[in-house]
Design brief:
By secondary structure, the chain is an all-alpha fold. It is 85% helix and 0% strand. Helix 1 crosses helix 2 and helix 5 packs across helix 6. The protein starts with a helix and ends with a helix.
């Protein structure tokens, strides 16, 4: 996981001209257009995760050797991933909540059934399964209806994480400190500064994102 995150940070820095505006949008502008936030996150995933996978495909390597083709393909991959995530994100949120809560509810209900010795009740297995799915559906529908709040929270977290890497890279160069994103988590000092920056930007962006909403509720 640490190696994967290190590679992700490296690609964020390499593609800083895309990563920086995306991070600023997610941190400060997502509250105005929450539904666009998932598209921006999809774009970031496309250029930093999907494109590297495509670039490792053998028959594409010769085409991507041309820098112009590489940039066009990079942007196209980001846009296509953004469109897919934008279209499907509500269903992804719903399915994730449904599956997770159903499994948790099933095990909790099973534990209660065993604790009270109710295994002998007729159709108890079907009752347990049906009740678990029902609870999961309620959770999925709740998550589906609250997708704006979910988008805001995810936006500030992802935006702060990306922006912190870029700021740490800039500060490292400014003070002449070597910064290797691939081995970031092996350097405790760098981890400390990264986490500090992340918490600072997370607090700042969360405060600006949710403060206006709270103020409006108080005024009304």
């Amino acid at each position: 996981m640490e190696g994967l995150m290190g590679d992700f940070f490296r690609l964020i820095i390499e593609n800083w001209y895309f990563s920086l505006p995306a991070a600023l949008f997610l941190m400060f502008a997502a509250r105005y257009v929450e539904h666009i936030a998932f598209a921006v996150i999809g774009f970031v995933i496309g250029i930093n995760f999907v494109f590297p996978l495509l670039s490792n495909i053998e028959f594409l390597k010769s085409y991507l050797a041309n820098e112009n083709v590489k940039v066009i393909t990079l942007v196209a991959t980001g846009v296509l991933t953004a469109v897919v995530l934008y279209v499907l994100y509500r269903y992804i949120v719903f399915l994730a909540a449904l599956v997770t809560v159903t499994f948790v509810a099933y095990y909790v209900i099973n534990f209660l059934v065993s604790s009270f010795n109710l295994q002998g009740v007729q159709y108890m297995n079907w009752i347990t399964l049906g009740l678990s799915v029902f609870i999961g559906l309620l959770a999925g529908l709740t998550a589906y209806r609250k997708e704006k709040e979910f988008a805001r929270i995810l936006s500030v977290v992802v935006g702060a994480a990306i922006f912190s890497v870029l700021v740490l890279f800039y500060l490292s160069g400014l003070f002449g400190v070597e910064f290797k994103p691939e081995s970031l988590f092996a350097n405790k000092t760098m981890v400390f500064f990264y986490v500090s920056l992340f918490l600072l930007f997370l607090f700042l962006s969360a405060w600006l994102t949710f403060r206006k909403k709270s103020y409006q509720k108080t005024s009304s």
